Amino acid sequence: xxxxxxxxxxxxxxxxxxxxxxxxxxxxxxxxxxxxxxxxxxxxxxxxxxxxxxxxxxxxxxxxxxxxxxxxxxxxxxxxxxxxxxxxxxxxxxxxxxxxxxxxxxxxxxxxxxxxxxxxxxxxxxxxxxxxxxxxxxxxxxxxxxxxxxxxxxxxxxxxxxxxxxxxxxxxxxxxxxxxxxxxxxxxxxxxxxxxxxxxxxxxxxxxxxxxxxxxxxxxxxxxxxxxxxxxxxxxxxxxxxxxxxxxxxxxxxxxxxxxxxxxxxxxxxxxxxxxxxxxxxxxxxxxxxxxxxxxxxxxxxxxxxxxxxxxxxxxxxxxxxxxxxxxxxxxxxxxxxxxxxxxx
Length: 345
Ligand code: BDP
Fold this sequence. Notes:
One of its GO terms (biological process) is transmembrane transport. Pfam families: DctP. The chain has 345 residues and is an alpha/beta fold. The termini are far apart. The strands form three sheets. The chain has a five-stranded mixed β-sheet with strand order 2-1-3-10-4, sandwiched between helices. Strand 6, helix 7 and strand 7 form a beta-alpha-beta unit. It contains 13 helices and eleven strands. Helix 2 runs antiparallel to helix 11 and helix 7 crosses helix 12. Beta-D-glucopyranuronic acid binds next to strand 3.
């Protein structure tokens, strides 16, 4: 989709969403409930909500979103309908987050990367090399502190429901990258937050924050030299067809977050909140299973397509180079960094 068309559809969807939510929360059709049901105040109401995701239809997060929607529908006996809008069709992540804060879009699945500009605690996930492995990351995400971080979104008008998997992010470029030194002077697209800008500066490159949907054409036209992401995104967004040098440095593990607009959430009955929360938690299993599958498939595709892959055996030189970033933010994130360290044991 052209940028102008995309913007128009994002604006249209805001207007549309706003009227939808008015209809939903203003108390539409109260379906009579069977006797013995003395549930909370909005029980029996029907809702039609939208969930935005930047990824295409068969991507693990979208499959997770769909599982979530299906479970909500089932648990509410068809009263709560959630339609999934993939492909960034409701706007890029930053503008979707803004729409969610307003209540114009009711649900979204976004990366913690862009969320960091809206909710400072989530910035911690953009710090480099804080997790040793997927196990370490998930041990933290499932810990009390990890759950508390989801809840911290409330201060920014969002209700965090669940984490989804997003693996580890690595650099890729149209120019060769054989070691950490080769990023020097390269223009690298990053997710939109300040920590990422500091990260690229520490590596000697220049950061270009921009929405995900613009990365492919920017690589093609040379607006940027490279970018960084997990391998499923590198493949599904076709970046691997243009930026054919991949270095598996795994500098970040930035989880995905499934969340609701707090404006919408606060109007739901306790029973409906419970339904939605349970469905979100249950959908994690689907997303993570799809994630594992897609990581393997992407790896295969990359190997078959002539991408030059450099494995990083020793991340020490990378860690040393990005240390100024950790030093800059250590005090801000002390509590959570301690909890992440504790999850290592
Ligand atoms: C992907 C995330 C997606 C982000 C994208 C990005 O799944 O939500 O938008 O990275 O780099 O891994 O912007």
